[in-house]
Design brief:
By secondary structure, the chain is α/β, with parallel strands linked by helices. It has 2 domains: about 50-150 and about 270-320, D-Maltodextrin-Binding Protein, domain 2; about 155-260, Periplasmic binding protein-like II (D-Maltodextrin-Binding Protein, domain 2). Helix content is about 45%, strand content about 20%. It is built from 12 helices and 14 strands. The strands form 3 sheets. Strands 1, 5, 6, 7, 8 and 14 form a 6-stranded mixed sheet that branches. Strands 11-10-12-9-13 form a 5-stranded mixed sheet, sandwiched between helices. It has a 3-stranded antiparallel sheet with strand order 2-3-4.
Length: about 325
């Protein structure tokens, strides 16, 4: 009896298992996913990663320039003009040829002394055409081309400034002064110096003031016109700035006869064009263009137009900055 019962129970379990298996085969899973019919998303256009890529894509180059840095860059009748502007136009021509463009729009973008480097960092301009000194501190923010001009800090005074002040600034020792250094420092203590805010001249003047423990007052101004006027109005005894710009500003001023730019160059500061860091292809094109102008001698008539006939040292300067292919 026990054996017959066990057989019957086993048959019941086997039958139940067969029915369950059949149900799984016939009935689809409750959570089965339907085949997708969604089309793949269209690929987004790749953003240009370099200056040349951006110019190629837009057929436009944006050249930044300062409106108050004559003879390097300035606005004349609403248009960009100056030595640096002419060099940047040559770069634009080279870019057009390099990219094989049928047409290239050149957009001149005015920038200020305060925002010029930020405009480069934010790609609002592709190349900055001004009077900017290449320094190690600035190279943390932007990149510089090969030098375009042998710049440096000069000094502007009134023509009727004391002869002793002129001698001190020009480092000329008077025969009647036994202790020239002490006398020079004493003379400078009472002077008022004017500089443009945010320039290398401001850094240099404040550094010298600290070095020699001078009590001289330093008056910051917002541009060359304001600095020249400070001297004319006798509100400042000396205006320090880029010597080439001082020479031009003094020559064009209605009171030119009352102004004098001293002969001395207080610093050597190579001036260069400015562009974004980390863009080696664009840097190479800019430097190749400049080097071509230097090596061919085409730089000399451009220089003459804005600074006068180049002397032997200027000609040698451009030769030394020519890089062979």
């Amino acid at each position: 009896m026990q054996r017959a019962g066990s057989m019957t129970a086993w048959k019941c379990r086997a039958r139940l298992a067969s029915l369950a298996l059949a149900a799984l085969v016939i009935v689809p899973p409750a959570f089965a996913q339907k085949p997708t019919t969604t089309k793949p998303a269209a690929a987004k256009p790749v953003a240009p990663t370099t200056t040349l890529d951006r110019i190629r894509q837009t057929a436009r180059i944006r050249l930044g320039y300062r409106t108050d840095a004559r003879p390097f860059s300035f606005a004349e009748s609403g248009k960009a003009a100056g030595f640096s502007v002419a060099l940047c136009q040559n770069v634009a021509n080279a870019v057009k040829a390099e990219l094989g463009l049928n047409a290239l729009t050149v957009e001149w973008v005015p920038v200020t002394l305060e925002d010029r480097f930020l405009a480069v960092q934010q790609a609002r301009v592709d190349l900055l055409c001004g009077a900017d000194t290449r320094t190690l501190a600035r190279m943390k923010e932007v990149a510089f081309s090969t030098s375009i001009f042998p710049g440096g800090i000069g000094a502007l005074v009134r023509s009727d400034a004391p002869a002793r002040l002129k001698d001190v600034l020009n480092a000329r020792k008077a025969a009647t002064q036994p202790n020239w250094r002490a006398s020079s420092i004493q003379m400078l203590q009472t002077q008022i110096f004017s500089v443009i805010s945010g320039t290398t001249a401001e850094t240099w003047v404040n550094g010298k003031k600290q070095e020699f423990k001078l009590a001289s007052k330093v008056v910051p101004v917002d541009g060359y016109a304001a600095g020249v006027q400070q001297v004319l109005d006798r509100k400042a005894n000396v205006f320090f700035g880029d010597r080439a710009i001082l020479l031009d500003a003094a020559a064009r001023n209605p009171s030119a006869g009352n102004l004098l730019v001293l002969e001395r160059l207080f610093t050597y500061e190579p001036t260069a064009l400015v562009f974004a860091r980390g863009d080696d292809d664009f840097r190479l094109l800019v430097d190749r263009t400049l080097s071509g102008l230097y090596g061919s001698g085409q730089i000399l008539p451009l220089y003459k137009e804005w600074f006068g006939v180049p002397d032997a040292s200027t000609i040698a300067y451009f030769r030394w900055n020519t890089v062979p292919e």
